[in-house]
Design a protein that fits this description.
Blueprint (H helix, E strand, L loop, with lengths): L8 H24 L1 H10 L2 H33 L3 H16 L11 H24 L1 H4 L5 H28 L20 H24 L10 H17 L5 H32 L3 H29 L1 H21 L3 H13 L1 H15 L5 H16 L1 H13 L2 H19 L8
């Protein structure tokens, strides 16, 4: 854990900017633009496209579940985390940019899903190391606040990127950057939509730079990679064997795995749901996404103060209750106006649940084990996490209805809420 020494404002801002940077991947690729383009334009059938996207997310989830705790434990033994973050950030950026070559042709579906699987795995692994730097960056009394600021800034980063995607690409009659005399059609079919992948890649890479420049890294232990790997795996195995020593950690990991899976499923398939069930166009989906990011960002920042004053557990429970209360009528809504009302109400609680989960994990992690614990955080989330996309896809196919798929999400919120009631937060 961090000492009581106050961190520099530049370091905190740079740390938060990484959330601003990586939000482009979630908003543009996995939720509101490319996922919809894949189902509608590449596959050509929203139901079949949703099912195939779901299968790809399931594969990515299994890979993340296997790799995240091992790499987290290895990083704890090696000390430094920035090299790992740099590697996985670069992989995410590269494979996101590669989506530019995905044409609206079913023949390109396999290439698209392969790129998305690799990029998603790298994205989540980068976040394991990113989250693990929080306890070493700020004192315990600021964990909730800084975590909430990060999530909030991340949502506003997604908002800014979506606005640029909407006005500069999807609705723009011609390419940007001074390419005068050329139309989007000169760059191939659906070039204005495909170019948003390049936007997301550039956004991520550019705004991630302050983190690598100004956020302090953990000191190197002097262990080589092979030694760190051996010791890290051995430490992880010992932790799992001695799980009773970390009872509250394990309770929280299991509880959070369920509710995080519900949130991740909604964010992964929200754009597909809006397009397929309510017939929204790309432009309408982007406007909806912009509004959703505004309320989610405000929720994350607003509840950050409550996290530090009342604790992360009450914030998580309130957020889960709020998401369930909005989720039930959302599934029953047939009018677009009510869809907007309840979807934005649901979004208001996304950020608080995610930010408070990160701060609680940071508080529960034993000293020197942040990487390993956030790796387990990723493991448990993904161990349960592939069930969300899987059940969503199976229910969508079985009932030929995206509403049926989205209904499975509410069960994850209910289970997560029940399990969180048994978790005790450490004294502050």
């Amino acid at each position: 854990m961090s000492s009581g020494k106050a961190p520099s404002r530049r370091a905190i801002l740079s740390w938060c900017l990484y959330d601003w940077a990586n939000s482009a991947y979630n908003t543009i690729i996995t939720t509101f633009v490319f996922a919809v383009y894949f189902a509608r334009g590449v596959v050509g059938d929203p139901v079949e496209g949703t099912a195939r996207w779901s299968a790809a997310m399931t594969v990515a989830g299994v890979a993340i579940a296997v790799l995240s705790p091992v790499l987290g434990a290895v990083a704890d033994r090696a000390g430094r985390r920035k090299p790992w973050m740099a590697l996985f950030t670069l992989v995410t950026v590269a494979f996101t940019a590669a989506l530019w070559w995905v044409r609206p042709d079913p023949a390109d579906a396999g290439f698209a899903l392969a790129c998305v699987v690799v990029a998603t795995v790298a994205f989540e692994l980068a976040n394991v190391f990113y989250n693990a730097t929080l306890p070493g960056l700020v004192p315990a009394r600021l964990l909730g606040r800084v975590s909430g600021w990060g999530w909030g800034i991340g949502y506003f980063g997604g908002l800014a990127c979506l606005v640029l995607a909407l006005v500069g690409f999807v609705q723009a009659p011609a390419p940007l950057f001074g390419l005068s005399g050329m139309e989007w059609a000169d760059w191939g079919p659906q070039a204005n939509v495909r170019a948003t992948a390049l936007l997301a890649a550039a956004w991520y890479g550019l705004f991630a730079l302050p983190y690598f420049l100004w956020v302090p890294d953990e000191p190197a232990t002097g262990h080589g990679l092979l030694r760190a790997a051996r010791e890290g795996v051995a430490t992880l195995a010992a932790t799992l064997r001695q799980a009773r020593r970390y009872r509250e950690v394990m309770r929280f990991l299991i509880a959070s795995a369920f509710y995080r899976d519900g949130i991740n499923t909604i964010t992964a398939f929200g754009g597909l749901f809006a397009a397929g069930t309510f017939g929204m166009s790309f432009e309408e989906i982007l406007v909806f996404a912009i509004a959703l990011n505004v309320v989610a960002g405000l929720g994350a920042i607003g509840f950050a103060w409550m996290d530090d004053r009342a604790g992360a557990r009450p914030v998580i429970l309130i957020a889960l209750a709020g998401m369930t209360a909005c989720g039930v009528p959302l599934l029953l809504a047939t009018d677009r106006l009510w869809f907007w009302v309840f979807a934005l109400g649901l979004g208001l609680f996304f950020g608080p649940a995610q930010a408070a989960g990160r701060s609680m994990m940071a508080r529960l992690a034993p000293p020197g084990m942040a990487g390993e614990m956030f790796g387990l955080y990723g493991l448990t989330g993904r161990f349960v996490g592939f069930f969300g996309p899987l059940l969503f896809g199976l229910a969508t196919q079985a009932f030929a209805s995206q509403r049926a798929g989205m209904a499975t999400v509410l069960a994850f919120f209910a289970v997560g809420f029940g399990l969180m009631l048994a978790v005790r937060e450490p004294a502050r």
